[in-house]
Each structure stands twice: as C-alpha cells, then as structure tokens.
Amino acid sequence: MATLLLALAVGCTGLYAGFMLIFQTGIMPALARLTDPEFVTAMRRINEYVPRPVFLAVFLGVIAFPAAAFFVPQDGRTDTQKWLVLAGLVCAVLNHAVTIGGNIPLNTALAAPETAPAGDPAGDPSVVRSAFEKRWNGFHRVRTALIVLAFGLLTAAAVLPEGA
C-alpha cells in the first residue's frame, strides 16, 4: 500500500509541477504580450476555468498522497526515503500556502473590478493589471519552485533502492 501511495504522490505532484511550470514558462510569458484589457480578460477567464474537478483532485492529491505515503508504514523503507517523502510533503504544503495566501487573493481581487461602475479606476484594465501581474508572477515563481522541488524529492524517495 505504501508503495502505491508513493507512486500516486509522485504522479500527482508531477502533474501539478508540470502545470505550474507550463504556466511559468509558456502561459504567463504569452499573456505578458497582450494589451491590458486582453490580459485582464484572459486571466479572469483562466481563473474561472482552472478550478474544475480534475484540477481540484490533483491540487488536493499533491498533499494527500505524500502525507499518506509518509504515515503509512512500509517495511524496508529507509530513513532517507522517509525524510525525502517528508521534505516533499513540506514543499507541497508550502506551495499550497503560497497559492492560498498569495495567488488566490490576487485572483479574487482581479475578478472584483469586472463589476466596477463605469468611470471607477478599479475597472481600468491598466490599473487592474499593474496591481495584479507582477505580484501574481512573484508568488507563482515561488510556488513553482516549491512544487518542482517536491516532485524531485518524492521521485528520489521512490527510486532510491531499499537499504540505500
């Protein structure tokens, strides 16, 4: 059971790390080339469509599977493997803390001006973008690094030979 849980942890974390890395290296650089109104609209639509059931299952699995893999005992797992799983779990939890404490509040604030009255600066796409983009990208770089590190640590735990 512990081996299956570790495999699920690696797979789920790998999917999520890939998603974060694609956003970092492809989606955000592409969106940076858009005009302010195009950028704001695109990010609003992305923020509406990303939190769907498949994404949420992966998002939750990134914590649940490494935690289960750590706490379910396995004969033959070395202390090094246990520490690698724990370190991967800590990185995943920190990733989620950055997401919940940084990116999600910015996403929520980005959605709010869509209903701002005409003439309100909160509805001006250049004002909205300047309050959002740089901060969101900063948080995203941190969370991407954390989840890629988590994936590496969990993968190392999975491939490390028993007794090593």
Write a concise synopsis of the structure shown.
The protein is mainly α and 164 residues long. It is built from five helices and no strands. The protein has helices at 2-32, 36-49, 53-71, 79-111, 125-159.
Structural commentary:
The chain is an all-alpha fold and 164 residues long. The chain has helices spanning 2-32, 36-49, 53-71, 79-111, 125-159. It is elongated, with a radius of gyration of 19 Å. The model has no long low-confidence stretch (mean pLDDT 91).
Helix content bin: over 70%
CA radius of gyration: 19 Å
Low-confidence segments? none
Report the count of strand segments.
0
User: What multimeric state do the chains show?
Assistant: single chain
**Tertiary shape:** elongated
Number of helices: 5
Structural class: mainly alpha
Throw out a few tags for this protein.
164 residues, 0% strand, mainly alpha, single chain, elongated, 5 helices
Which SSEs are present, and which pair or pack?
Blueprint: H1 2-32, H2 36-49, H3 53-71, H4 79-111, H5 125-159
Helix pairs in contact: 1-3, 1-5, 2-5, 3-4, 4-5
